[in-house]
Amino acid sequence: MKDILKNKFFLTAAGISLFILILVLLLSPKKNVNPAGPPGADDSRAPTALSAIVPINLSTEKRNAAIVYTDSIESKLPLVLDSFATSVGTQTYISVSRTDDDPAEIVHLDIVGLSYINKNELGESKNPNMTAFKESYLKAVEMLESQNIDPKRLLFVYSDVPYVHETATYWVDKLGLLR
User: Could you tell me if residue 141 is inside a domain?
Assistant: First the structure.
């Protein structure tokens, strides 16, 4: 009789423990790992990630014009600013570059050192990261123009990380940074 009670107790305890473990695993927050490390940590570009970001709704004419223009300015790249101080106290790293793995029409404009998570908050007083992005983006445009490069003729990818590219594209559009 004692063996049966011990087995029932053991089975009940094991069942409850397993149930709690499953609940913890299901309800625990998922970690988002940002594959883009600090500048220079790993400069390789993942073509599969980039292919998901490259605009696919471009006309052949726009794509060809971008290819010709990008080819004509490629010798002036990369442009890099290791530390840019924004008015909100955020130091950013700005890079305008191309790699051999990129589609011919694409130029990377990477701004590192701020958070791209709070995408929809466009109020500068409420979102210092958006302010840091705006100031860094305008500095990147200034860097391009100082080399006689027209940023309006380039097709930018803002990161190989989809949520960063999506947020940056949204901010550029909503803030009218490339008009």
Answer: yes
Q: Domain count for the chain, please give it.
A: 1
Q: What is the pTM of this model?
A: 0.69
Q: How many CB atoms lie within 10 A of CB 177?
A: 16
Determine how many CB atoms are found less than 10 A away from the CB of residue 149. Answer: 21
Report the chain's C-alpha Rg in angstroms.
24
Count of Cβ atoms closer than 10 Å to residue 81 Cβ: 16
Q: Is residue 164 one of the residues assigned to a domain? A: yes
Q: Is residue 153 part of a domain?
A: yes
The answer as to whether 16 is a domain residue is: no
The 8 Å CB, 24+ separation contacts for 63-68 are: 63/105, 63/155, 65/153, 66/105, 66/153, 66/154, 66/155, 67/104, 67/105
Query: Mean pLDDT in the chain?
Result: 82
Instruction: Give the domain extent around 115.
Output: 47-174
Of 6-20, 75-89, 140-154, give the lowest mean pLDDT range. Answer: 6-20
